[in-house]
Specification:
This protein is α/β, with parallel strands linked by helices. It is built from 13 helices and 21 strands. The strands form 6 sheets. It has an 8-stranded mixed sheet, with helices on both faces. It has a 5-stranded parallel sheet with strand order 2-1-3-4-5, with helices on both faces. Helix 9 packs across helix 13. The radius of gyration is 26 Å and the shape is elongated. The N and C termini lie close together (12 Å). The relative contact order is 0.09. Cytidine-5'-triphosphate (CTP) binds next to helix 11 and strand 16.
Length: 411
């Protein structure tokens, strides 16, 4: 197994910068308790309040419990030093809007900024989680639901309200989600962010170039997007990543180790060099299967009417080599197929002794090479098949990493 137990018990929330954004609903008093829970877990929490939230609980309460200044006034003549705190908030790891009123959801969905909370939301670039609370009529209003859909489509995560007795005396959905539920969603957000801590992952990406003469080469249309997404997500989830890439136009993820190469043989050498230091190999590169038998030293000139006959020889199959030299590594291969998807992928899985194979049908339009989206089928060593719907390569990368973790005992 690739996971060492000593790395499991880790306080995932410690020192994480969290913005607790409080809007003006009766449930504000619950945000006070949530703040206590987050601080107890080691979170560095900054509270921002909407214009009217102070009608329910004073900023002083939040300031005392968080140990940090509270941002609640947009226009404040005295304290230019506040800007510093606002910058810290803008760069926080998570923004948590609890409780979120119908009004603040409307502002967030439509880009309005007329108080401290809505301004900070617009300036904030990190992940946002929202726990709405309002009366049942407002919750089911189409305008509110449309705003929620809009925010969801932009990646905002929702912790849905519960059914129950509401402050206005009615019964229905709208009551702020249970605090334990909100807390556990926040916690699992940070667990997820670091769930690959301590694991070393080697990823290959992009096409290879097999030179024919000084100006020509043999290649394929791989853009490298799948491999770079895997490397980026693995890095974001705390793994130590080494990305070996053929020629692409992409920027390697910040913080990852990076080695570039051109030919299949160069990639082969790099994989062999780094494999012993790694726990997982994800071979998403579209490695050229053939290379010129003879590399022409001079550029081949065209002669009217004459052709050029190339003699190609197979390259080394990197995954076959890996199957012979691997020790504890979990090895993932890819299969790009135009027919008999599952059968062909299964054959590759067995032949190359893989732990997991990611198969995709490259004949389907709008997915695969070059595209931002893909639709893949995962097959593990027990030959269990999982068909994933069409999604972004980033989402596929995350699911693939989830499955690798799960097949290694989870975390
Ligand atoms: N691969 C490799 N070394 C090569 C070629 C491919 O390690 N020289 C890896 C790819 O990175 C990918 C998997 O093997 O993970 C793809 O398998 P492969 O048999 O090359 O697929 P195809 O090129 O589609 O092969 P075929 O023509 O047999 O379908």
């Amino acid at each position: 197994t690739i996971i060492k137990t000593s790395k499991i018990n880790f306080n995932f929330m410690k020192n994480k910068k969290i913005v607790l954004a409080v809007s003006a609903g009766i449930a504000v008093y619950k945000a006070v308790e949530l703040l206590r829970m987050l601080v107890k877990e080691g979170g560095d929490v900054r509270v921002v309040m909407s214009a009217n939230a102070g009608q329910f609980v004073t900023p002083l309460t939040f300031e005392s419990l968080s140990g940090n200044p509270v941002y609640h006034q947009l226009f404040n003549s005295e304290k230019s030093a506040d800007m510093e705190h606002i910058r810290v908030a803008e760069n926080a790891d998570l923004m948590l809007v609890v409780p979120a009123t119908a009004s603040i959801l409307g502002k967030m969905a439509n880009g309005l900024a007329d108080d401290a909370l809505s301004n900070l939301y617009l300036a904030f670039k990190g992940p946002v989680m929202v726990a709405p609370a309002m009366n049942e009529g407002m919750w089911s209003n189409l305008a509110v639901q449309k705003n929620i859909e809009q925010l969801k489509s932009r990646g905002v995560q929702f912790i849905d309200p519960e059914e129950g007795e509401l402050a206005c005396g009615t019964i229905g959905p709208g009551r702020l989600a249970n605090l334990d539920m909100i807390f556990s969603r926040v916690k699992s957000h940070f667990v997820k962010l670091q769930d690959l801590r301590g694991i070393k992952i080697l990823v290959t990406a992009g096409p290879t170039h097999e030179p024919l003469d000084p100006v020509r080469y043999l290649s394929n249309p791989s853009s490298g997007k799948m491999g770079y997404s895997i490397a980026g997500q693995a890095q974001a989830r705390g793994a130590e990543v080494i990305l070996i890439s053929g020629p692409t136009h992409l920027k390697p993820p910040a913080g990852a180790g990076f080695k570039s190469c051109k030919t299949a043989e160069e990639m082969n050498q790099l994989v062999k060099e780094f494999l012993p230091k790694c726990d997982v190999l994800i071979m998403s590169a579209a490695v050229g299967d053939f290379t010129a038998e003879k590399l022409e030293k001079e550029k081949i000139k065209k002669q009217r009417g004459a052709g050029w006959t190339l003699n190609l020889v197979p390259t080394k199959d990197i995954l076959m080599e890996v199957s012979r030299i691997k020790t504890h590594q979990f090895v993932v291969g890819f299969a790009a197929e135009t027919q008999n998807l599952v059968q062909s992928a299964l054959e590759k899985l067995r032949k190359k002794k893989l732990d997991l194979i990611v198969a995709n049908d490259i004949s389907a339009p709008g997915i695969g090479f070059q595209s931002d989206n893909n639709q893949v089928t995962l097959i593990n060593a027990d030959e269990k098949i999982e068909n994933l719907p069409r999604m972004s390569k980033k989402e596929i990368a995350d699911i693939l990493l989830d499955r690798i973790l799960l097949l290694n005992g989870g975390r």
